Amino acid sequence: MLKSKYYTENELSDFGFKKIGKNVKISSDARIYGQENISLGNNVRIDDFVILSATHGFIEMGNNVFIARGCHLSGFFGIVLKNFSSMAANTIIYSASDDYSGNYLTAQSIPQEYTSHIGGLVTIGKHVIIGAGTVIIGGCHIAEGCSIGSMSLVTKDLEEWSVYAGIPAKILKKRSNKLLELEKKLINDRPEFG
Questions:
Q1: Angle in degrees, CA 163, 172, 161, rounded to 5
Q2: What is the distance of C-alpha 183 from the center of its chain?
Q3: In what order do the strands lie in the sheet with 38-40?
Q4: Angle at 123 between CA 122 and CA 125, to 5 degrees
Q5: Per-residue pLDDT, 108
Q6: What is the pTM of this model?
Q7: Cα–Cα nearest to 46, from 2, 74, 4
Q8: CA–CA separation, 79 vs 167, rounded Å?
Q9: What b/e sequence results for 150-171 when a residue is b if at least 16 CB atoms lie within 10 Å of its CB, and e otherwise?
């Protein structure tokens, strides 16, 4: 059985990230574009086949962020992932999309002056968990403590401490914030997670 290989701290220091914290694990099977526009906090883990694209715009991750295999983050207008946020496999976040109105050309192979983009900043709040196969299209703010069910489509702001699912994502119920007590205990017991 093959094991996933993560880049060493020395290898990561040569990538040219805008900022990189401690205990960052990035799979050698991940693809990173525009690393000079990407900031990573402490205790970040990025698994196999993830694509981080910030050749235009930026991606900013806080502490204790997890991105599962096969996720794609496109930060044209910016993506911010706050502390303790995570996403399951095959989540896609597009802060921008081509303008499909017919007034502009579309496709990555076309020079930028002939294209236009719509969308906006995507903010993933603290303690947000995103289910597998979810698609998020900017601009939107996913407030602290949201839980998003698998295979959902998010195109607008979501309320804090709520559970969402569906296409488009709709609120199902409120989510407990008891985990905030566990966060305090973790940081107290293990300060490196603070």
A1: 30
A2: 20
A3: 19-20, 38-40, 59-61, 79-81, 122-124, 140-142
A4: 155
A5: 81
A6: 0.94
A7: 4
A8: 21
A9: eebebeeebebbbbbbeeebee
